[in-house]
Automatic annotation (TrEMBL):
Stated name of the protein: Immunity protein 10
Amino acid sequence: MTPFEVKCVGVVDESGGYSFSVGIAENSDGGGRSVIFGILTDALPDEGDDYIYSVTDEGHRTSTGGVVECFLNRDRLLLSFSEIAAQIFEVRESRISFPLQISDREFTELADGLARILDREPPRKHDLKLTR
């Protein structure tokens, strides 16, 4: 995974409440490099199960869980990954920054979507900081 300027945000909320995902993309049409965060909304974590969401990049590399910090403001999305997730995504540093060039509506969708996905992880093992 390499950093890119985010020009598109997409949200998919499957009918029937089965899954929810929010994605960021390099191109305004949704193409190019991308990262998708997803969760099964009808699944409850088993006792001791720390990871109930996934993160996937455009190369289909997927980490189950692995976000240890998420910082979002109007200009930037900053993600810090666990050591295992950083290896999966071939991130040299565990932290990666994505500049944002998105509309106010897309920013709200991204903030709400990340909160919905990342705040479901019990026990809370990441730091989610969303500033609007």
